[in-house]
Every structure is written in C-alpha cells, then in structure tokens.
Design goal:
By secondary structure, this protein is α+β, with helices and mostly antiparallel strands. The chain contains three helices and four strands. It is globular and about 30 Å long. It is found in: Cytoplasm, Cytoskeleton.
Amino acid sequence: MLEGKAVLRETDMPEQMQSHAMELAYQALDLHEVSDCQSIAHYIKQKFDDVYGPAWHCVVGKDFGCCITHLGGSFIFFRVEMVEFLIFKDGRDFSESKEEAIGVLQQFQKSDT
C-alpha cells in the first residue's frame, strides 16, 4: 500500500463524499497492486455505484489527460503519492425512462424544423 497522504487537486463534491472517495482509494490500494490501475478503478467505481447510484466513472493512473462532462457535485481529482484518481458521475440522467427520452428527442426534432 502507498502510505502517502491524499492530496486534493480539485473537487465540487460534498466533504463527506470526498472523504469516502479517498477512503475507497486507500482500500483499493490495499487490495490491489499499485500497478493494477484497472482493478483499482473498477473497485472504486463499483463502490460508488452501490452507494450513490449508477453512472459513476473512475480513472486511475500516473499520467493521463481527460476532458469530461459531469453532474454538479460529483467530481473529485486527487492523488496519493504518484497515483492520480479522477472520480465523477456521468452528465446524463439515467433515471429517465426510454419513453421519456424518446419524447424529448421528438420535441427536439420538431423544434429543429
């Protein structure tokens, strides 16, 4: 496990959720090799989906770029020693039913003509 303190880079999450994200990062680092970034990311994503609902994403690594859209209050970017963690919820609303989504699409298409 990495022993370093988590360093917050940027976030718009509530403090309790931030603490939970960092706690999960430490748990994931305990369970997986530091080099197994995919397993670490999968562990954190699954835990966030379980607690906060679906559509969470997690990126873990030592050097990556990103450009994302996220829901307000659902973004955190921090590091533990040399490992970076990006966790966010997708910008789409997955609670819509298929029928509601089709209705919105039809309204959009009508307003386009």
